[in-house]
Each structure stands twice: as structure tokens, then as C-alpha cells.
Amino acid sequence: MRLRPLLAVLTTALAGVLGATAPASAAEPAPVTPYIIGGGYVSSAPWAAAVFSNGSFTCSGSVISAQWVLTARHCISGSMSVRVGSVYYASGGVTRTVSATYTRNDLALMRLSSSVSTSYVSLANSNPPVGSTNSIYGWGMTCYSGCSASSQLKTATVQVTSNNATDAYGGQAIRSTRINGNAWRGDSGGPQFYNGQQVGVASTADGSSIQNYGSVAYNRAWITSTAGV
């Protein structure tokens, strides 16, 4: 089994973490099965942040306070910006440039150039129980290969199998398997929720069932000392 970063990546790039996908076309691709991959579309998520590198959509993220967005470390490259407050990564909401980035394991905190007025996620202080049902969110690819990022934010449910996995940089991670969908390229940096709190940040996946999300609880003290949240 090979786990890859969840970045959206161009087709000419090497496969890696859950990286970025090539930009989505104007029309949403026809549904595929399984299509996150799987899951369903989100109609409202004011805390969601689409992450851009050098002007191109790269990753997913979450707004944790007026001037801070949480995403994955492997998403940070070049000139960074975010679109906040829209379920469509290419339109709506507001855009902000990123003035500074801070990283630990496969988590990254991006300080925005100016504040955004929206709702923020609540961060967990403990990992979700093994066996629990969690939700994941992102704009990643809707099939394993041959399709682009989803233009509209998606969500899926997963089941936690371990809290002792590792993320792309060796930090503690939450491993889960698909229930009705799974993370893939472009979902990198996106959140995993349990009981209304963000417990993880998308790091790596195998594209068919398994995904590892960097543990928010494991990095909680660093988040607080850096972003004050």
C-alpha cells in the first residue's frame, strides 16, 4: 500500500501527498462511482478556505480565526493566497493573500494579510475515538485518475481505525477508512471533524479507502502559541 500526499498536482507532476489537482473545467464532471472520491456536495461552509499557490488552486483548508487558516505543510509553496466563505473554490467569498506561514509536522498555519469576517472552526484537544464516524471536507479529485478537482466543496464520512499513524512529515496522524467516500488529491489540508470539532488535517491517502490526517490535538499547543487560538 502506498500512501500519497493529497495535494492537487498537475498531470505532469509526480504522484505524492494529497496534492493539488489540475484546475477544474468550467463544467463539473459527470458523477463517477466511487467519487472527495464519493460523499456528497456541501451547500454552506463559511469556515472553508480554498488554498492557492502562485494563483493556482492547490489545497483545502479551514479558517480557525479572523486572520488564520489551517492547512497542510506540504501545500506551502511560492506565493500563497486563500478564498474564504464560498463552497466554490474559483468564485464567491473573499480572497486574501498570505503574509506569513508557520509549519509543524504536516500542519501549516497561514496568517492572512487582513482579517476575514466569517465563522471559524472549533479545534479539538483530543483525538477522536477509534471506531468513531468522522466527516472530511475538501475540493479534491472526484475519481482516482482522469478527472479534475471538484469545483464545489465535498464531504464524506469515514471511520477512524487508529490514532497512531504518521503524517507526511512523521507527526502523529489519525488513520481512517471510507464509509461513503475518501480523500484524494486536492483534499490536502482539508479538515476532519468529530463531534463538531476539527480533529485532523488531510495529509496522505491511498486513493481508494485509507487516509491519514495530521492530528490537531497532537499539535494543539503549537497552534495556540503561534495563532493564539
SSE map:
Elements: E1 4-8, E2 18-20, E3 40-41, E4 48-53, E5 56-65, E6 68-71, E7 80-84, E8 94-104, E9 107-112, E10 133-138, E11 154-166, E12 172-178, E13 191-194, E14 197-205, E15 210-215, H1 220-227
Parallel strand pairs: 1-2
Antiparallel strand pairs: 1-14, 3-11, 4-5, 4-7, 5-6, 6-9, 7-8, 8-9, 10-11, 10-13, 11-12, 12-15, 13-14, 14-15
Provide the succession of SSEs. EEEEEEEEEEEEEEEH
| Net shape | globular
Rounded mean pLDDT score: 88
Give the low-confidence spans: 9-16, 20-35
How large, in whole angstroms, is the Cα Rg? Answer: 15 Å
Portion in helices = under 10%
Structural commentary:
The protein is mainly β and 229 residues long. 3% of the residues lie in helices and 42% in strands. It is built from 1 helix and 15 strands, in the order βββββββββββββββα. The strands form 2 sheets. The chain has a 6-stranded antiparallel β-barrel with strand order 10-11-12-15-14-13. A 6-stranded antiparallel beta barrel has the order 4-5-6-9-8-7. A hairpin with a 2-residue loop joins strand 5 (56-65) and strand 6 (68-71). The model is unreliable at 9-16 and 20-35 (pLDDT under 50).
Question: Gist?
Answer:
3% of the residues lie in helices and 42% in strands. It is built from 1 helix and 15 strands, in the order βββββββββββββββα.
Question: Which tags fit this structure?
Answer:
1 helix, single chain, 229 residues, mainly beta, 6-stranded antiparallel β-barrel, globular
